[in-house]
Amino acid sequence: MEVRSESEVQVRSEKILPLQGQVIQRTRLKVWFIRVCSSILIWTCLVQLIAVWELYQPRLFSGFGGYTKMSVHVEETLPSPLPLLLARNYTNNGFLQVSCNGGLNQMRAAICDMVTVARLLNITLVVPELDKTSFWADPSNFDDIFDVRHFIASLRDEVRIIKRLPKRFSRRYGYQPLEMPPVSWSNEKYYLQQILPLFSKHQVIHFNRTDTRLANNGIPLELQKLRCRVNFQALKFTPDIEALGEKLVRMLQERGPFVALHLRYEMDMLAFSGCTHGCTVEEAEELKRLRYAFPWWREKEILSEERRSQGLCPLTPEEAALILQALGFEKDIQIYIASGDIYGGERRLAVLRAAFPKIVKKDMLLEPGELRHFQNHSSQMAALDFVVSTSSSVFVPTYDGNMAKVVEGHRRYLGFKKTIRLDRKRLVELLDLHHNGTLTWDEFTAAVRQSHEGRMGQPVRRRVIADKPKEEDYFYANPQECLCEGKTCDDLFGHDNSTAVQ
């Protein structure tokens, strides 16, 4: 037998050990490679399964729940999110930045308009900036209120929407976009003829005001329907807002029917409108000082009683109590106050609470910790009120501001749910006649009900007033083009059911 010296064995071991290390390393690489490939394959299959599920789920379950497709939308909730759509392929003409102004619902309507303008001009829309400098000074960004991923994905077949401009157009790199407010109440010809040519020169345009920049009427049908699609499908609130809003609705519904009363008797509205009926002298002076403090509230000297007689003031809490009673609401009906802080606090709510003891507000139904995240964010609080108001048995706004109009439109879309549009000019006349003893309670009640028979949210054609867009019916309060299809519009609204003014 061959006997190897100790030195030979050592040399052979030194040669074998590196080879063993290489074999082990290769084995580990193979195992790692197999795991990576397997993971990729599994995730790819999972994504495909999810896509197929989202595509076929509505069809699989469309036969359940007793729902029959009709020309009029009758869902109790907004439609489910659409499956991922193919991105629209088009030549991009530029980038549009927008800074929305006003409160939540004013900005909501503006966002719908700006998406529609972007689609019309084949331009890329940057996710809108929300107003942070208004009376409410709400620091919320778009994605604090709306589900930004759903917003972008649900419209990708119509408009390209991005979260921020490409770096080459950033102000940090010295690029200055063209800043301008588009002309109010403009139709598609204005944007095609006046705005589109500006993109070829500037590439980026920043609209620094966006309220009411698209006309109510005279817009092509496909654009009107896109405005509705953005409003009713793409603009979903964040999951946190949706969940808390739905919790409020459940709590209220478990106790029975409820009225959402949009009591717009808040400091900003009273200061802006100059309405001081029912206020003390000190309160009237405080509201006047506030009006002077904000430069964009241009009308400074306002005659409150004259404004009230014209129907331009929100009803006071005391007036609202009488009107609700006259309309036939029982004492034990639940009333949800959908608003911010009432000017004058509980002192001004005393009469309303005495007439309707079951008055509730957000902070009465929820634990303090549940609302803490939304405190000092007026738009997020307004979003909660929006969810409750669209789901209420009856909606009664005491002023026809943006929330009243947009909620009314949503309730029409959900099957013409009852919305009582108060005729404040007529009501002020009746209230004064009742207070001075001219009208008895029975006469007052009969007059109030008779004057509101046709103001309960029934199907009606939008009122058009030539050359007076501010006075005609607002598109988002009555988006009739989105409430019926083809010939069924005549069945819904009637051939002669029009209040158009020539």
From TrEMBL:
The keyword Disulfide bond does not apply. GO terms for cellular component: chloroplast; membrane. Pathway: Glycan metabolism. The chain crosses the membrane at residues 32-53. CDD domains: O-FucT_plant. The keyword Cell inner membrane does not apply. Belongs to the glycosyltransferase GT106 family. This is O-fucosyltransferase family protein. The lineage of its organism: Eukaryota, Viridiplantae, Streptophyta, Embryophyta, Tracheophyta.
